Amino acid sequence: MALGPRAEELERLVSTFVGATFGIAVSSGTSALHLLIRAFSIGDGDEVITTPFSFVASANCILYEHAKPVFVDVQPETGNIDPALIESAITSRTKAILPVDAFGHPAELDKIREIANKHGLVVIEDACESLGSAYKGKRCGSPTYAHAAAFAFYPNKQITTGEGGMIVTNDSEVARLCRSLRNQGRMESGPWLSHDRLGYNYRMDELSAALGVAQMQRIDELLAKRARVAKIYAERLSGLAGVRIPHVAPEVTTMSWFVYVIRLDKGINRDVVMESLLEAGVECRPYFTPIHLQPFYRQMFGYREGDFPVAEQLGSCSVAIPFYNNLTEGQIDYVVDRLSYALRTHA
Ligand SMILES: *Cc1c(COP(=O)(O)O)cnc(C)c1O
């Protein structure tokens, strides 16, 4: 059974946690984003301003509705969309701004909302990586800054339902539309199998929701475990030449760690360092390849290297190192030791 009492409970838990009136459980973070693009009537010919430094889903959701993602470059410290560059990208076709809280670090949500208000735009926050983070005392996804936000519960996120996602909003009309759209366009009341609009099967099943409920009930403990790992990494890595640990802006009142991404100084060959780590059995990944340089986006829009230099620079020097709730000090020491060895011998 789908859309039962457990999905409703998860909706209550997550919406209450972020301070939103409505929560709409869906089948993934991507479907949450897609429904929001639909619910705000963003379509053919419309433009959405967003970041190239993200997982591809945050731009794909715009393309699903034949609207155009308009990228602006990011801030070098956080990798988040640079509010100072947004206004010059606004045209008469712009409908929304879609910031992403990269790696769990909130975007400058107050400035983004201010720009949106000034120009009559909607803010759709991709909070898929930032459940539990807070910006100036408000949790990511909070309606204080975003008209609506999307969370994702894939296994590598702060909480998981297997596959799953959640929309949060204070907008009752958006909530009503999203509930209908996730369920084949059915109305909430009215005759069975009456479809009022083109909808999808984006429902969250009860098994997944039960998993999510159990995790939301101990969300503080889960986030504390991640914060512990991040803190030990920061201690061990801060003395290591050539490595910069993640920056957390002072406006971030709570940092909820999605991944732990270090940066290597210019002149260090990131890929060689990664190869050395992988050989030693240390899982690591380049994070992110900017969206505009993904083959599909190059092909469709003609993007090239140099279009968004800050995002590209970050993408070329970043390494996500092993990051799990229960990583032991011994495992962390091993990672740091192998990283230090790689930097000395291969870089
Ligand atoms: C994980 C993620 C998504 C999509 O989530 P899925 O549940 O995998 O569909 C979207 N945006 C960002 C930034 C993400 O990290």
Could you give a quick summary of the protein structure above?
Helices cover 37% and strands 15% of the residues. It has 347 residues and is an alpha/beta fold. It binds pyridoxal-5'-phosphate (PLP).
How would a crystallographer describe the biggest sheet?
Answer: 7 strands, mixed
Mean pLDDT, to the nearest integer, reads 96
Estimated share of beta-strand residues: 15-25%
Q: What shape does the CA trace take?
A: globular
Q: Which stretches are poorly predicted, pLDDT < 50 over at least 5 residues? A: none
In N-to-C order, the SSE pattern is HEHEHEEHEEEEEHHHEEEHEHHEH
How many separate helices?
11
- Beta strands, count: 14
Distance between the first and last residues' Cα: 54 Å
Rg (C-alpha, Å)? 20 Å
Q: In words, what does this structure look like?
A:
The protein is an alpha/beta fold and 347 residues long. The chain has eleven helices and 14 strands. It has a seven-stranded mixed sheet, with helices on both faces. A four-stranded antiparallel sheet has the order 10-12-14-13. α2 (29-39) crosses α3 (57-64), α2 (29-39) packs across α5 and α8 crosses α11. The radius of gyration is 20 Å and the shape is globular. It starts with a helix and ends with a helix. Pyridoxal-5'-phosphate binds next to α2 and α3.
Structural descriptors:
4-stranded antiparallel sheet; alpha/beta; 15% strand; 347 residues; 37% helix; single chain; binds pyridoxal-5'-phosphate; 7-stranded mixed sheet
